[in-house]
Amino acid sequence: MASSNPRKRPTSTQISTKSSSSPKENIIINNNNTSSDSPIASPKWGLLFKLSLFSIPPYFYLLFYHYPIEQELRRSILINAAMSLVGFFLTVKLIPVASRYVLKRNLFGYDINKKDTPMGSVKVPESLGIVVGIVFLVVAILFQYFNFTEDSNWLVEYNAALACICFMMLLGFVDDVLDVPWRVKLLLPSIAALPLLMAYAGHTTIVIPKPLVPHIGVEVLDLGCLYKLYMGLLAVFCTNSINIHAGLNGLEVGQTVVIASAILIHNIMQIGASTDPEYKQAHAFSVYLTQPLLATSLALLSYNWYPSSVFVGDTFTYFAGMTMAVIGILGHFSETLLIFFLPQVLNFLLSLPQLSGYIPCPRHRLPKFDPKTGLLTGTNDGTLVNLSLRILGRKSEKALCIYLLGFQALACCFCFLLRHILAGWYK
What we know:
The chain is mainly α. It has a domain at 44-335. Helix content is 62%, strand content 6%. The strands form three sheets. The protein has a three-stranded antiparallel sheet. Strands 6-7-8 form a three-stranded antiparallel sheet. Strand 6 and strand 7 form a beta hairpin. The longest helix is centred in the first third of the chain and has 34 residues, at 71-104. The model is unreliable at 1-37 (pLDDT under 50).
C-alpha cells in the first residue's frame, strides 16, 4: 500500500491493492484535492437486538441461577459487564467519527464482492478495528481499579496480556497501512506474544489423557520451555486463522462474536462446577477479557454486517485473534479453544497448499461475483468460503455468511458435547 511522503506531496494518484482474502481492495489515494465522503450508514440495531435476545438470557441464567457462584466473584463479573456495555455504546458512537478521519486520510476500500454494481463503487472506510481495540483496552485497563489489588498474583499476567493485545493491534494497523508480506505476517504474532511469554509464571504442565497414562507412565507431564513454545504457536495460529478466514461482509467480526460467546459460556460453566479457587480465578480472568471483546465486537458488527458500512482491516483480525489466544492460554483451556476454532483449523488446512507456495496463490482468494444475479460462485482456491459454495451451490454474500457462522456455532456446540461425553474418561 502506497502512502504519501510527508516531505513531498505527490501530485499524481497512487493506488495499490493488498494481497489478502478480504472482500476489498485497500487503496490509498494521495492528491492535493481530497474531500471526505458522506457519513456511513446507521448501525443495524435490529441485528443487535436479535443477537442479544438469543445470547444474553442463557448467559445470565447460568450466572445467576444455575450455578452457585460466590457473591464477590459474581460482583466482579457484573462490574466488568457494565463497563463492557459502556464500551459497546462508546464504540458505536466512535466508529462514525473515526470513519470520517480515515476517509480524509484516504484509507478506504472497494467491496470486490459487489464489483460492477452501484455499491461496488462506494468508498468504504478501512481499518475501523482500531476503534474496537482502543475501547477494549481502555475498558480492560480501567477494570483493574475494581478488581485487582497491588499485590494481586494475576496483575502482572493481566497487564502482560494487555500489552500483547495492544502490540498486536498496532502491528495490525501497520499491516493495513504498509501492506506487509505474508512471510512477515506470520512472524508478527510471535513478536506481539513476547510480553506474555516473558511474564508468564503459571504452570508448564499438561494432564495426560487417562487412556494414554499406562503408555506414558505419568499422569502429569512438565513440558518446561516447550509449553511456552506451544503458547507462542497458539498465538500465531489464532491470530492468522481469523485473518485468513475472511472474504464476506461480517464474517471476521461474526466468527469473533460466536467464539467469544462460546468462551463466555464455557468459563461460567467451569467457574460454577469447580471448587478450586485458583481454577475459578483463571476462568474469571478469561471472563474479564471476553466480555469487553464481545461487547465492542458487537458494536463493530452493527456496521460491518451486510451491506458493510466499514471494513475492519487486519487491525481487528489480529487484535481479536491475539485476544482469544491470550484468553485461552491464561484461562488454561487451550484444547477447548482449538475445538471452538474448528472452522478456522479446517480453513487453514485448505489454505496450506497455497500459503506454502505449493499451489499458485492469487492476490484475492475470493469467490466469483455475478453482478446480474448478485450471487457468488466458488472457485478452486483453498478456502472454506469457496469450499462451502462448491458444496452448497451459488449463494448471496449474506446467505453464505450466515451459513458459515452457523457452522461456527455448530463447532462450538460440538465442543460442549464432546467435553460432556469425555468428562471423567478422557481426563
